[in-house]
Amino acid sequence: MAFAEHPKQEILLPVKRSFIALSLILALLLNLIPLQGLALASWPDFIALTILYWCISQPQRVGISAAFAMGLLMDIGDGSPFGQHALAYTIMAFAALVLHRRLSNFGLAKQAPQIGLILIAGQLIILLTGLLGGSHFPGWDFFLASVTGTLLWPFLSSMLRIPQKPRSDSDAL
Amino acid sequence: MTPQFFRHGPSLLARLVFFVMLSLVLMAVDARFKYLVEIRQAFSTIIYPLQKLANVPQTIYDGISEVFSSGDLAEENANLKQQHLVDRGQLQQLRALEVENAQLRKLLETAQRVETKAVMAEILRVPHDPFNRKVILDKGSQSGIQPGQVVVDDIGVIGQVTRGYPFVSEVTLITDKDHSVPVQVVRNGLRSVVSGMGKDAMLELRYLAVNTDIQEGDMLVTSGIDGVYPPGLPVAVVSRIERNSTYVFARVTCTPVAGVGHNRQLLILSMLTPVTEIPADAIELEPESRKREKGGVRRTP
Questions:
Q1: What is the complex's ipTM, to 2 decimals?
Q2: Would an 8 Å CB–CB cutoff place B141 in contact with chain A?
């Protein structure tokens, strides 16, 4: 009975290493787009989303070290203290790796709120390191990025799944 | 328990602890010491092409809007010509004044005014970091940009270059909470230091006594005492003063005059003549002055 509620699991093709790298570079590119004001505050963290997706679907390939390296690149891009994003991404990747069996049992829409919690946890770490560095509280719109990230999750993960879709129907003769 | 041959390297928890420690150490080292400059520069060179690429949509948008706005060009040209004429007239007066000023200074045997050179730069991106007020400019050490140079727009001071990378440079805005600019009130020559508050379009003058002669609307310009900012650049206008006799200091809030946060083209100033020459005996005295400095006065970046 319990199994009947599970979404239909598709059998996907193995992921190419180059596709993972390409998706991470594209995520970095999206994070580096120049924006200002509310658009900047609500712009989701594409690197966090992409790393979470790969940690859940390919836990053997993408893990904490990749998250750490992407975090360092993001720290340079943002001019933030070296290691701030790295710390946040490391802990987010850990959470995703621990939860990946549980999360992959849910459909994309049901995964989204759980991903949202991980995103908020990551932002809290960045906020905490910022406050320890002597900054002011930036205001509640700081967390808008987690909300938009949560809303984007189903679309982003179905897009990252497209290249792994089997080309032809394997049941056909 | 997993058999040995199914394991993949160190356990998840061990990796987590390792990388968390590593990032904490990196943050501490980056905040306190200057060892990571080369590493930051290497990483910056890696993401520079991506930064350029991420700017392409903006560049295309600018190009398209330029094409569509060509109807206004004639009008804009006429306005600019008129402005140019007015400016020329004022510039002629300025030249005469400059010569006169130099002669007077020579007579009084005071130091000559500072000459500056400007390099035009464009904002590449505004970092997605609510804790720091910084912008990334598209000129770096390859174009001769050094940390410490002053960044202005057509109206006043924007900030200061704090990190130089090969192709880009990082500018800390005057509104950053760690940033201070030595200023002077134009009306009466009162010297003070204006500091950022980490908020948009807000600066404050700290440690001014309640009875200080300062008024709303007072213009603050750089005093040039620090040897970093050339003197006379407009910085801010006093917007609000709260005098409460129960406190020792007045709360003075100012608004920056320059378009901190909404300009795309900026000027990076480099000084051709050093503002202040360090006297030889000051270098000998340095150990003592350093001891005094440890007493708690924090240096502004």
A1: 0.84
A2: no
